[in-house]
Amino acid sequence: MNSIQQELSIFTKFNFEKPPVGVKFLPTKPDGIERLNKVLDFCEMLIESQNGGAFYVTKENFACPVGPLVLGMIEGDPLFERGQVGPKLEIFRDSRANRRIYQVVPRLSKGIIKYVAFSPLDKLSFEPDVLIITANLSQIEILLRAMSYSTGEMWSSKGTVVMGCAWLYIYPYLSGELNLTLPSFGMRARNLFPGELLPVSIPWDLLPSLINDLKDMKWVPHSYTIGREEHKKKVKRIVDTLR
Fold first, then answer.
1. Which of 15, 32, 71, 211 is most exposed by smallest CB count within 10 Å?
2. pLDDT digits over 159-174, tens only?
């Protein structure tokens, strides 16, 4: 286990059904990993890495134009940005609703990022810009509670009905905020997150405090184990004592 894997080893204690995946945005070719030998959509690359692959991709590896667009690798296609595609797919009632999303979807500056590296946690050899965890609701509750444990920070879920990869990868990287992403139209159509699993994206600068709080706090508080009525009594005893 290398130092990066050791730093992130707290996440192995969750026993996630799918392994966490580190993602890094690079202007130069990464060392020590091979280029992906297939063409996929940006959201599918997460699943490819969860299945054991450490790799990097270039513009030529993307099947869907949304990935290179939000990465700043290509210019926008007027056909999409005029809002003509969404209504045909039954996503939006009309083109004006479709056009609105292009004003809010996060994108990287053009011409900066040329490579994106992916790796599951057990093969991670680089410091990730974003760590993406696919988890069930109980596991997500622990992550969100840890995010607030020492800071009181609120959590939020931000996204749009399409272009979900922008909120999965790009938004947390740019904002420094954890993002709980609900599967977008394309992710649902590709059946990428079956069952009760949802992706949580954690930016690099939030990881140290989150890891420290996961180490410090009780993952299963006492009140979770004693039932509703006993919890009410416990709260009353605490309040009465403090008064």
1. 15
2. 999 999 999 999 999 9
